[in-house]
Amino acid sequence: MKFKNIFLVLGLLLSFSCKTPSDVYKIEGKNVNVNDSIQAKPSIESFIKPYRENINKDLDSILAYAVDTYSKSDGHLNTAIGNLMADVVYDEADPVFFKRTGAHIDFVLLNHGGIRSIISKGPITKRTAFEMMPFENSIVVSKLPGAQVKELLDYLAKAKRAHPISQLKIVLDKDANVVESSIKKLPIDFNKTYYIATNDYLINGGDGMDFFKASEEVIVLDYKIRNALIDYFMKTDTLNPVMDDRFIQLKD
Amino acid sequence: MKRREFIQQTTAATALVGLGGFGLQSFSSAPKKITILHTNDVHSHIDPFGPEDGRNPNQGGIARRATLIEGIRAENPNTLLLDAGDIFQGTPYFNYYGGELEFKLMSMLKYDAATIGNHDFDNGLEGLYAQLPHAKFDFVSANYDFSNTIMDTHAKPYKTFVKNGIKIGVFGLGIELAGLVDKNMYKETVYLNPVEIAQDMSRVLKEYEKCDLIICLSHLGYNYRNNEDKPSDLSLAKLTKDIDLFIGGHTHTFLPQPTIVKNSVDQNVLVNQVGCYGINLGKIDFYFGNNKNTSAEGVSILV
């Protein structure tokens, strides 16, 4: 580590003040790296151990099996893993929303960047959910006017990213104009308001999704996305998500 | 109300200065060293990063930090250990135990004080309050008014310590919560302007508490280059006086060494922050003296 010697003059102050023991005459500062060259203190290590083992046991207990490996880069405008995530949010959050409001979620919009890891072929555990969604983001439902639903479609057309969606269908032409769109297989009525499930990051304007700022109402479900994934994994035997035609671009 | 007390203390201080002038020779005692150790934004990173980690392989780990701190304390028992907030959130330890293990381990490492970061509200005020029995150290926060919350009286504006006759004052500052933390989590917590509070705290600790060393334990963030109006450690260091050290957090800034800043009366202040996840430990040694060492060239700062 490099040490630079800097002498600083506090001339007046020092020459007038009493040299009591409370005078600082030298300060040394450095930031020390904690790494594997330092021995772990055994008493601390053994205190942590039961907590770690308990967590690992729970995190690694097998909930389901994935038939393949899925990554958010496998696909252009929709991916198997993104479709799974958005569908899980719809499937798990809609009953909660309905119970609370008597209304149903119309569609789901998440963000591509919110998928934080791949799903590996083989056993699915709670750890998978923690890896996919390490953040505490939770599901919120926006009551959004049709005009902003239009903005949302334009946003997705322009972004050309596989932002996960569920119950929404978008077809772009080769110039990325929206040529077809539907919600739950019905044409979109831009004079109506829709209930859109998303996460608390996007509702606050994350990823430039400013249209959510026009929400007439935001219903907080107190339901973390990670927990929705875990709940889904627990009742599912085999994960076999697919890339489909929910968000596509026509070649010509 | 406090005025009479204040005048009395001012008189006492003047008398001391007078005495000092007479008895210069008597100040030949050995210099005293105070060591300040600090962490910030550990974010529940209890275990070290594994060898496979893409970013921080083999870094961090609280059991290693314990060994390091133990060694420093053996060398100098006059050591304070502080944390600048965001103790919670980041690994399943928090999701499973709600911060219990973090507080228990920090108590075992003998932390002296911590301030409150925005993520320490992640399980709400109730979640933080519920874990307090596991913390054998105090929380300091001068600009969060918790009066109308469950946390009322559980975070002091400041705390003083006396180590080897040196009085150290540590006050806490937290970041604005609106827009950063869900209102349901912080409820009626009132955020007060950190600039005014820091000016007030430094006056209280200097003039009323007569501290020899004043430390601001902050979770404001190191610096906001694109938003100079947003209070940060660098901006506060420039706007205040009598504070010797700012220990910061929030921005996960890995400073290679502490930054030296000129305060409002052109004196030097140290501003430090050690990134995040327990990867680094900040160590600042203050040497108090012995007039022989206090030479005309002033305080030497080695960083």
UniProtKB/TrEMBL annotation, chain A:
<dbReference type="GO" id="GO:0009166">
    <property type="term" value="P:nucleotide catabolic process"/>
</dbReference>
<dbReference type="InterPro" id="IPR006179">
    <property type="entry name" value="5_nucleotidase/apyrase"/>
</dbReference>
<feature type="domain" description="5'-Nucleotidase C-terminal">
    <location>
        <begin position="73"/>
        <end position="213"/>
    </location>
</feature>
<dbReference type="InterPro" id="IPR036907">
    <property type="entry name" value="5'-Nucleotdase_C_sf"/>
</dbReference>
<dbReference type="GO" id="GO:0016787">
    <property type="term" value="F:hydrolase activity"/>
</dbReference>
<protein>
    <submittedName>
        <fullName>5'-nucleotidase-like protein</fullName>
    </submittedName>
</protein>
<dbReference type="InterPro" id="IPR008334">
    <property type="entry name" value="5'-Nucleotdase_C"/>
</dbReference>
<dbReference type="Pfam" id="PF02872">
    <property type="entry name" value="5_nucleotid_C"/>
</dbReference>
UniProtKB/TrEMBL annotation, chain B:
<dbReference type="InterPro" id="IPR004843">
    <property type="entry name" value="Calcineurin-like_PHP"/>
</dbReference>
<feature type="domain" description="Calcineurin-like phosphoesterase">
    <location>
        <begin position="35"/>
        <end position="253"/>
    </location>
</feature>
<dbReference type="InterPro" id="IPR029052">
    <property type="entry name" value="Metallo-depent_PP-like"/>
</dbReference>
<keyword id="KW-0378">Hydrolase</keyword>
<dbReference type="GO" id="GO:0009166">
    <property type="term" value="P:nucleotide catabolic process"/>
</dbReference>
<protein>
    <submittedName>
        <fullName>5'-nucleotidase</fullName>
    </submittedName>
</protein>
<dbReference type="GO" id="GO:0008253">
    <property type="term" value="F:5'-nucleotidase activity"/>
</dbReference>
<dbReference type="GO" id="GO:0008768">
    <property type="term" value="F:UDP-sugar diphosphatase activity"/>
</dbReference>
<dbReference type="GO" id="GO:0000166">
    <property type="term" value="F:nucleotide binding"/>
</dbReference>
<comment type="similarity">
    <text>Belongs to the 5'-nucleotidase family.</text>
</comment>
<dbReference type="GO" id="GO:0030288">
    <property type="term" value="C:outer membrane-bounded periplasmic space"/>
</dbReference>
<dbReference type="InterPro" id="IPR006179">
    <property type="entry name" value="5_nucleotidase/apyrase"/>
</dbReference>
<dbReference type="GO" id="GO:0046872">
    <property type="term" value="F:metal ion binding"/>
</dbReference>
<keyword id="KW-0547">Nucleotide-binding</keyword>
<dbReference type="InterPro" id="IPR006146">
    <property type="entry name" value="5'-Nucleotdase_CS"/>
</dbReference>
<dbReference type="Pfam" id="PF00149">
    <property type="entry name" value="Metallophos"/>
</dbReference>
